[in-house]
Specification:
With 389 residues, the chain is α+β, with helices and mostly antiparallel strands. The chain has 14 helices and eleven strands.
Length: 389
C-alpha cells in the first residue's frame, strides 16, 4: 500500500483548486464537530461544578427535583434521621436560591445570582477560597463572592482586592437587603448561573424571608473514613420514607448530566450539530473524489485492463481520502484550539481541548473521508474497459 502513495498524492495535487476545496470542507467539518463536542462537554462540566466541589459522600434530594436549576425542597428532619447510622460523621443542610444582585458600580438591579446557604460549622466546600473564608460567614449579612462570575455583576473582584470588602444589596420578591462581600472563592459559571454567592444558612434565610428553615434543597452526608458509600446509600434509602431520594456523589453528578442530556433540547441540538458537521464533510469529500474518479476513468479502466484488481483501485482512492483527512484535520484542530480559548474568555465556560477528544475527532474525520472515498469508487466497480474505450 505504501508503494502506491506517490500516485495517490500526485493525482490529488494535479488539481490544486479542487484539493483546496476538499480541504476547506474537511476543515469546516472538523471545526464544527470540535466546537459541538467542546460546548457539550462544557455544558456538562459546568452543570456539575457545584456537586464536584462538595465534600460529601451521600446526598438527599426531593424526588421532585430534576436538576440544580429545578430543585424542590424536602423536610430537614429527613437529614437528621441519617444520624441514626454509626457510619455518619456529620450532616448539613444546603439551601439553594436566586437573588437579584445590585451592581455596585451602576447601582441597577438586572442580574440574577445563584445563592448557596450552608451550616458553616462544617467544611463542605473544596472550592479555592471557600474554606479559607468560611469563618468570616459567622457575621450577619455577609457573603463570599465567586471571582469567576460574569463581568456584568460589576467590578466586584477589583473593588474587593482594593478595599478588602464591598457593600451592595440583594433584592428578591419585593425585599432588598444590604449585604457585605467579605471574601472571594472560585467556582465558575454554568448554563444555569452567571454568578454565585456562598453564605451561612442563617444569612440565606435572611435573604429569603419566605423560606422556612425546615425546608432544604440538598442534604449532605459525610461518612467516617473507611465507610462504603454505596452500601450506606442502599441502607439509608430503605430506612427513609419515599419522600426523599439518596444519591452517592457520582450518582448525583450523573443525575445532573442526564437531565441536561436527555430532558432538555440542548443535548439533542449538540448531537444534531455533530451529525450535520460530519455530513457536510462526507458530501464535500465525496464530490471531490467522485469528480476525480470520473475525470480519470479511462486511466483507471486501463489499469483494470492490464490486470489490476478493483481492490488496488479502492486502495488508491482511499489513500487520497486519507491525505485529505489528515491535511484537513491539522488546520481544523488549530482553529478549534483558538476558538476554544475565545469561547472560554467570552463565556467563562470550562471548554478545553482534551487528548481523548482530539483522537476521537481524528478517527471520525478519517472514517468520514473513507466513507466518501468508498462511495466514490463504486463507479469503478461496474466500469468495463471495453465500454470505456
Amino acid at each position: 500500500m505504501l508503494q502506491k502513495l506517490p500516485t495517490a498524492w500526485l493525482q490529488l495535487r494535479h488539481q490544486k483548486v479542487r484539493l483546496i476545496v476538499a480541504l476547506a470542507g474537511v476543515v469546516f467539518s472538523v471545526v464544527i464537530v470540535f466546537m459541538q463536542f467542546g460546548l457539550q462537554e462544557a455544558l456538562f462540566d459546568s452543570a456539575v461544578r457545584f456537586y464536584n466541589g462538595l465534600e460529601g459522600d451521600c446526598f438527599l434530594l426531593s424526588p421532585r427535583s430534576n436538576a440544580l436549576i429545578a430543585m424542590e425542597t424536602f423536610p430537614k428532619r429527613r437529614l437528621s434521621q441519617a444520624l441514626a447510622f454509626e457510619e455518619v460523621e456529620f450532616v448539613t443542610p444546603i439551601y439553594l436560591g436566586q437573588g437579584q444582585w445590585k451592581n455596585p458600580e451602576t447601582r441597577d438591579y438586572w442580574r440574577n445570582i445563584f445563592i448557596v446557604g450552608f451550616d458553616i460549622r462544617y467544611p463542605i466546600f473544596s472550592f479555592p477560597g471557600a474554606e479559607e473564608n468560611r469563618k468570616k460567614l459567622e457575621l450577619p449579612d455577609v457573603v463570599l463572592y465567586d471571582r469567576d462570575s460574569r463581568a456584568e455583576f460589576g467590578p466586584v473582584v477589583a473593588e474587593f482586592e482594593k478595599k478588602g470588602s464591598l457593600v451592595t444589596e440583594i433584592g428578591g420578591r419585593g425585599t432588598n437587603r444590604r449585604i457585605k462581600v467579605v471574601g472571594l472563592f472560585k467556582m465558575g459559571t454554568s448554563f444555569g448561573s452567571d454568578g454565585n454567592l456562598i453564605t451561612s444558612h442563617l444569612n440565606f434565610l435572611r435573604l429569603s424571608p419566605s423560606r422556612r428553615e425546615g425546608s432544604i434543597d440538598v442534604g449532605l452526608i459525610k461518612l467516617k473514613p473507611g465507610a462504603d458509600a454505596q452500601k450506606f446509600k442502599d441502607r439509608l434509602q430503605n430506612y427513609l420514607p419515599k419522600d426523599v431520594k439518596v444519591f452517592t456523589k457520582q450518582e448525583l453528578i450523573d443525575f445532573e448530566k442526564h437531565y441536561w442530556q436527555s430532558s432538555t433540547a440542548i443535548g439533542f441540538v449538540f448531537n444534531l450539530g455533530i451529525m450535520l458537521g460530519i455530513m457536510v464533510g462526507v458530501v464535500v469529500v465525496y464530490q471531490i473524489l467522485y469528480t476525480n474518479v470520473s475525470e480519470h476513468l479511462s486511466e483507471y479502466a486501463t489499469l483494470k485492463a492490464i490486470g489490476y484488481r478493483h481492490r488496488y483501485l479502492l486502495f488508491l482512492v482511499l489513500q487520497q481520502a486519507l491525505f485529505i483527512a489528515v491535511l484537513g484535520y491539522i488546520p481544523g484542530f488549530i482553529i478549534s484550539m483558538i476558538q476554544y480559548e475565545v469561547t472560554k474568555q467570552a463565556t467563562l465556560l470550562p471548554i478545553a481541548m482534551t487528548f481523548e477528544r482530539a483522537v476521537i475527532v481524528l478517527v471520525a474525520t478519517i472514517a468520514m473521508c473513507f466513507i466518501s472515498g468508498a462511495s466514490a469508487v463504486q463507479k469503478l466497480k461496474a466500469a468495463d474497459p471495453a465500454d470505456i474505450f
